[in-house]
Amino acid sequence: MSYQKSSEVTATEYNKIWHNNWDNGTTRWDMGDVSPALRELIQDKKWELPSGLGIVPGCGRGYDAMFLARPGLRMVGADLSQLAVDAASKIRDSLEIPAELAAFQVMDFFNFDIPASKYQVAYDYTFFCAIHPSMRADWGQRYAQILSPGAHLIALMYPLSKAEEDMERGPPFLVSEDDYHRVLDANFELIHIDPKCQTHNTRVGQEIITVWRRK
């Protein structure tokens, strides 16, 4: 199921799409493992993660949230679908990862109670491209609201666009570096970018990993 080409979409329409995808077992975006670019950033390039609380919106089956979770950093995987949350929790338990380190919750990213400490890190991969382009400004503002000063937003840009392609058909909706700068620059500073990051075999040339610091 996909949006028709349009200039805006309601939150209700957006939510319905993802509930339907999970209900129908249509989760083609799920690659079944941690994103290679994230693994490379943390394991190979030794990017230092903060301590505190982290969040992965649109976490799906939770691979990335579980990878980031560690003593001192409690990750919350958020998804609209109860089926996604249940699947992520089952995988976590099978890997014997403590629930207090990787918790999965049904949550609307744009409407939930922000913890008093806010979040110290967030990871965004197939979430930015999942929302309609008309919602992107709200996406940027929401990250500014939920992340504490100095916190890191790790954003894996995907799927990168080509000029001739239709930018308003999806999901996933095509993205560009400018799309992220447009909604993040007011409140974030880009501190890391790697256009040659490791990727899944089917996504070569479509991904750039970035890290943004909350001002």
TrEMBL record:
Keywords: Methyltransferase, Phosphoprotein, S-adenosyl-L-methionine, Transferase. It comes from Coemansia spiralis. Signal peptide: none annotated. GO terms for biological process: methylation. InterPro entries: SAM-dependent_MTases_sf (IPR029063), TPMT (IPR008854). The keyword Iron-sulfur does not apply. PANTHER family: PTHR32183, THIOL METHYLTRANSFERASE 2-RELATED. This is Thiopurine S-methyltransferase. GO terms for molecular function: S-adenosylmethionine-dependent methyltransferase activity. Gene3D superfamilies: Vaccinia Virus protein VP39. The keyword Methyltransferase applies. It comes from the Eukaryota.
